[in-house]
Amino acid sequence: MNPASKVYLAIDLGATNSRVIAGVYDSSSRTLELDDVSRFPTKAIEEGGSLKWDIQDIFDRISEGLAIAARKYDGRIQSIGVDTWAVDYGLIGEEGELLGNPYHYRDSRTEGVPEAIRKLVPDEVIFSETGIQFLFINTINQLFAEVNNPTSKIGSARRLLFIPDLVNYWLTGNSVQERTLASTSQLLNPVTGEWSERLLTSLGLHETLFAPVVEPGSKVGTLKPKLQNFTSLDPILVVAVASHDTASAFMALPESRPDYAIMSSGTWSLMGIELERPELGEQALADGFSNEIGFAGTVRFLKNICGMWLIEQCLKEWATEGTTYDYDEVIEMARSYDGSLSTIDPDAPEFAAPDNMPEAVREYCRKTEQLVPEEKEALLRCIFVSLALKYKYVFQKLDHHSPVPLKGLFMLGGGARNHFLNQLTADSLGVTVRTGPSEATAVGNIAAQLIASGELADLSDARTMVGASFPSEVFEPRAADQFEELYERFIELVER
Known about the structure:
The protein is α/β, with parallel strands linked by helices. Helix content is 38%, strand content 21%. α15 (419-429) links the parallel β17 (408-412) and β18. α14 (376-401) packs across α15 and α14 (376-401) packs across α18 (484-494).
């Protein structure tokens, strides 16, 4: 690394693990190198019978990471940006205080809520107003549950802040609502760019909770004096980057290819394309796609797919039984199995928050009259192949909405390191799979800061930088015909 290079810090919070990453930018070569400053688990807790985020612990770990960065890169740090998962939020009281830990999107309080909302506002109206697919985790469901909970503190709240906005607020003292994250809430109109008055009124939500949104790349403020003292940092600028982690990830393509779909693969897999304007028609609604806003006004036309959550929860269960595996071992276990194979729909409700993921997979196979994968190797192979088949299912639907025929797929995020799943995906889709950065969210976060600083001109310039900085791997389809019979069986499961 060039010791004179400027440094930009990405606070990249994931639903399972989080990190503070330094982006060291060499302006002469126009390339970026990443340096892990700190990593920590994203702590969730049981509180009063509900699942919530231990947001103070998360912020303490962030602060410690910033202090480590200050020691390592004294005087070179230019700015800080925060990206996180979507939909969750904190409520701020009249004195600027947080009114309790934010709820975790997997908390059970949204059970039955989508059906209750549907009685007040038809799906067609909600989709025409927001362009967002219907998921139980959406902010609209969480807030409706909050409004109808007599013990909720929402009546005392002055402002709602999504998780990255809340972290920015604690970093700077200034509150904003950034557009890419706000667009995932199923409350923001992607055409007008404003909060949907119709939905807020229908659901009993006070408009005063919602501030005007700011564009990604906006300057939030500088680090508060208290944090400057703790971290030994100067009054560093905090930038509202594309704060939804998928929006950041989509920035980190090695090049712009309108004939390639894009997938950010991690706990969730999000597959989509970039459009110039939202698609709000009946077919987009029927196919379950979302119109989320990206950097520079782009539209991320995409679908959420349950991703490595299935594997993560299996590993968690096996660890409680006394056996731990790393990801390399898991992949080899799945690769080694060559017996009869069952498949699951990764997005079936049975897998949203089961007590025991391996048993949930086996029970699903029993209910669907398939061979039950008793061996761990068979179960893991079942999950990986089922993910690849679900990717094919979504890719084919996505192709119908694309302005040009889709010829390939960019694989970004942690999934880019999973050669086994990448090859299964290429085989299943029958197209080229090309990887982008495994730390795509952090790269996109830093790219937004570089654009805000003037080091990079625009999104196209950022992607040129990504292509020059991070090597890409290519996976060509090798055995697409082997997936045909499996896919026919899989379609029956998904479309029951």
